[in-house]
């Protein structure tokens, strides 16, 4: 008989109407009532926290990872109930913190509380149970709206619709329904060269470039952060005329602060060698993050920075595929 552990963290799925608005309010026993399963699975429950995922912090990822790591040998799979707002960040973070996991970790939640009459929660719970039970793929996944998504590739696209998440730049892993879990893409096992490390350094900043962004902000950032991620335009380009952001990047890099470059375009990654505006960013020391999602870059950079401050090692680790986060640079 397979043994699964459900870890509750809060989110809409466990929310109830409260004076200040919807907030996690179900007890673990109340939540457990919605986990219907057949006789050949045994399910245990544990509360890790009871937060709207907007309140999740990087330190919470470490708590989650430890809880799974400590129980790795006692269970065949894990289900985590979680709010949708930061679920993609958590899925990425756990993918790095637990990159050597041999079991399936499924994160799910819902757009509507489980106790409401019309809700997506009960289907998502059933699908998470099905996937955790049937899929023999190690790693961290999101199960939502009948699909399983690789943890490092999920992006929340919609605030209300049941199909809140999409798999970006990567195939869906499975279709899930009453018929079971039909694996549609089985990722090749990775030969990872990374050490196990259950820590994060939250001192990073994420900047979305826009026409008119003043380079003076970089002067402030250099004294307050250990790593910067810039969502550039298109193929990794940033302005060097009038408001010269490229020189700003160069200054940060010279101070030993890694600057990771991604793109505001969700799909197809970037090619910084194509245009002068991208090449200059690369020449200034900007580190391309290829086709990784911003959520994954944030989590990976925090994980990497808690292990090293060496710029070339940071570049190497960011650009080495891990947990299927990256297909090309
Ligand atoms: N649908 C949800 O779960 C949204 C909620 N604010 C959360 O992230 O916890």
UniProtKB/TrEMBL annotation:
Reaction it catalyzes: L-asparagine + H2O = L-aspartate + NH4(+)
GO molecular function, one term: asparaginase activity
Enzyme Commission number(s) from the entry: 3.5.1.1
Domain Asparaginase/glutaminase C-terminal: 203-317
UniProt-annotated binding residues for substrate: 53, 84-85
SUPFAM superfamilies on file: Glutaminase/Asparaginase
Every L-asparaginase N-terminal domain range: 3-186
InterPro entries found in the cross-reference section: AsnA_fam, Asp/glu_Ase-like_sf, Asparaginase/glutaminase-like, Asparaginase/glutaminase_AS1, Asparaginase/glutaminase_AS2, Asparaginase_C, L-asparaginase_C, L-asparaginase_I
Active site: 12, 84
Keyword Transcription: no
Keywords: Hydrolase
Biological processes annotated in GO: amino acid metabolic process
Family: Belongs to the asparaginase 1 family.
Record-given protein name: asparaginase
Naturally occurring in which organism (per UniProt): Sporolactobacillus shoreae
